Amino acid sequence: MKASRQLFYFTPLCAALLAAGAAHATNGMLMEGYGPISTGMGGASQAIDHGNAAMAQNPATLGMMADGTARLDVALGILGPDVSSSAGGMTAKSGGTSYIMPAFGYTRRSGALTYGVGMFAQGGMGTEYDATSFMAGGTGLPARSELGVGNVIFPVAYQVNPNLTVGATFKFMWSSLDLQMAATGAQLAGLAQASGIAPTGNLAAALPALAGAPTARLSFSDDNKFTGAAKSTGFGAALGMTYKLNQDVTMGASYQLKSSLNDMETAASAASISAPGFLDNGKITVIDFQMPSVLAVGASWQASPSLLLAADVKYIGWADSMKSFKMRYDSAQMGGSVNFAMQQDWKDQAVLNLGMAWKANEALTLRAGLNLADNPIPDQFVNPLFPATVRDHVTLGLGYQVSKAGDFNMSVTMAPSVNVNSGSGVAISHAQTNWQFMYSHRF
After folding, report:
1. Mean of pLDDT values over 429-441
2. Which positions make up the signal peptide (predicted)?
């Protein structure tokens, strides 16, 4: 599953590299919600029944399905970023405007126990600038990257008593990355110095000359649309609960643990460092890239038979997972290695999800919501080619029961443009329009 595309480039004013992990430049690197029922309600998810997407948020809400039933959800998300960067009187518009994220989930309830399996993209976002734009740095080659983070999720929920349900998920995770990055030789050398680790072997001897190059390029990429040249696997987990205060009010909470992904690695000669008159092939290792922990609490209120209100608060632990972005290049030709590091210092992020659902008739449900968040990235570290700066979202959605066993849901999320002046002197504009579609069938 390809979850995101991301461009990296170093302008003459800044050796700024942002982690490709911003597969979710909506709430930082995370999606504003999972599944069209939740996203139609501003991303609220902790205390409402929103189908199998619950396994990506609060698994305890899976216990809201009827005993003796099963549910299959097939979903498609389309992330539509609109990004442009300007500097020195020049403007470049990103060509990365549409990213596809499929998902599915199957769950069954038997007595007090609900269980199942699902697959979800962690999110999606990207920027791509062509070889003629100022973002390409005069290399004559496009600058881009593609990051994918996906999960196969195994959820379980157990109804302890008529009011209390607890849940948990185990996640098999994978990540992959393609990267084609332009820089000056001096900027590349600066990143090597920032790592605090001295280069080794013949590569160390070549670096002083490389540092004087007017342009340089670090590249690793394959042609596979579903995986990147650098790959890793790992694990994740989450815990959740719901509690019915009364017939109309439900409370919910969940905790997503920080991921445990292995380092992403390419094949031994799949990466390259190049500059005028210099070319070396080798291996890239992306060191300790992780997805953050998420603590969420929420409530829902069935205000009337036709009106449901919901609200969540989420706290995303970016400070622990996004302190810096680190890579190591091991030469397969010259011998030796060089490490690169870029300071990130993201802040923890608070997100408020507000939503409502109105049942217009027996078949049609209309939804609306707000997703309100601060920006976790300090302005001085925002890379103009990785603008994970979107803050607030307005959401709309609908559900339609097409048969006794099947229903269709969709949502649209609109994030107004956020303008940031980065520490590199580049002005960045970033807006989004995202869609989600889902068909559900009950057995």
Report:
1. 94
2. 1-25
Tens digits of residue pLDDT in 215-246: 888 999 887 766 789 999 999 999 999 999 99
The predicted pLDDT at position 87 comes to: 85
The domain 4-442: what is its CATH number?
2.40.160.60
Token duo for residue 400? 């339609």
Q: What is the 3-state secondary structure (H, E, C) of the chain?
A: CCCEECCCECECCECCCCCCCCCCCCECCECCCCCHHHHHCCCCCCCCCCHHHHHHCCHHHHHHCCCCCEEEEEEEEEECEEEEEEECCEEEECCCCCEEEEEEEEEEEECCEEEEEEEEECCCCCCCECCCCHHHCCCCCCEEEEEEEEEEEEEEEEECCCCEEEEEEEEEEEEEEEEEEEECHHHHHHHHHHCCCCCCHHHHHHHHHHHCCCCEEEEECCCCCCCCCEEEEEEEEEEEEEEECCCCEEEEEEEECCCEECCEECCCCCEEEEECCEEEEEEEEEECCCCCCEEEEEEEEEEECCEEEEEEEEEECHHHHCCEEEEEEEECCCCCEEEEEEECCCCCEEEEEEEEEEECCCCEEEEEEEEEECCCCCHHHCECCECCCCCCEEEEEEEEECCCCEEEEEEEEEEEEEEEECCCCCEEEEEEEEEEEEEEEEC
Give the span between the Cα atoms of 340 and 211, in whole angstroms: 14
Mean pLDDT of the chain: 89
Gap between the Cα atoms of 60 and 46, Å rounded: 8
Task: Compute the distance between CA of residue 412 and CA of residue 397 in angstroms, rounded to an integer.
Answer: 6
- Residue ranges per structural domain of the chain: 4-442
pLDDT at 177: 87
Cα–Cα dist 286/238, whole Å: 25
d(CA 243, CA 341) in angstroms, rounded, equals: 45
- Cβ(121)–Cβ(176) below 8 Å: no
pTM: 0.89
- Give the dihedral of Cα atoms 263, 222, 11, 88; nearest 10 deg: -140
**Is residue 201 a contact partner of residue 335, using CB atoms and an 8 Å limit?**
yes
CA distance 201 to 337: 7
Longest CA–CA separation in the chain, Å? 74
pLDDT at 328 over 50: yes
Ramachandran area for residue 214 (φ above 0: left; ψ -120 to 50: alpha; else beta): alpha
Crossing angle of helices 201-211 and 185-194, in 10° steps, is: 130
- For residue 242 the two structure tokens come to 């719901």
